[in-house]
Amino acid sequence: MNQHIIHISDNVYQMLARRAAQENKPLEQVAERLLVQELSVDVPELTSTPEDVVEALAAVHRLSTLFADVDASLLERVLDDPMIELANVDLAIYIP
């Protein structure tokens, strides 16, 4: 197992040391257990309906065509201010 160094405040270190003493366990073991408990997240199973898939694909299409007519030589300016090239675009043709 790899070990990594992290920096914590003296206050947090003292709290960990007290907890480790109460549990009669090494400080590192207590810290790891607390962090694992705090960081463990139950990820709900994702379910999708055909309507969700259609909606997601439409969103991908809109995003992938949003900058289709932007000249690459002006890319830096476009990224700084997207309205430069998009000011006169007819967005109705991109909305399904």
Could you characterize what this model shows?
The structure is a single chain. The chain has 96 residues and is mostly helical. The chain folds into two domains: 10-39; 50-94, no CATH class. It is 55% helix and 0% strand. It has helices spanning 10-23, 27-39, 50-65, 75-80, 83-86. Helix 1 packs across helix 2. The longest helix is centred in the middle third of the chain and has 16 residues, at 50-65. It starts with 9 loop residues before the first helix and ends in a 10-residue tail after the last helix.
Flag low-confidence runs: none
Distance between the termini: 52 Å
Count of the domains: 2
What share of residues is helical?
A: 55-70%
Question: What is the count of DSSP helices, taking H or I runs of 4+ residues?
Answer: 5
Radius of gyration: 26 Å
The 3D shape can be described as elongated
Question: What is the average per-residue confidence, as pLDDT, rounded to a whole number?
Answer: 81
Q: What fraction of the residues are assigned to beta strands by DSSP?
A: under 5%
What is the H/E order? HHHHH
Q: Report the major sheet.
A: none
Beta strand count? 0
Give me the secondary-structure category.
mainly alpha
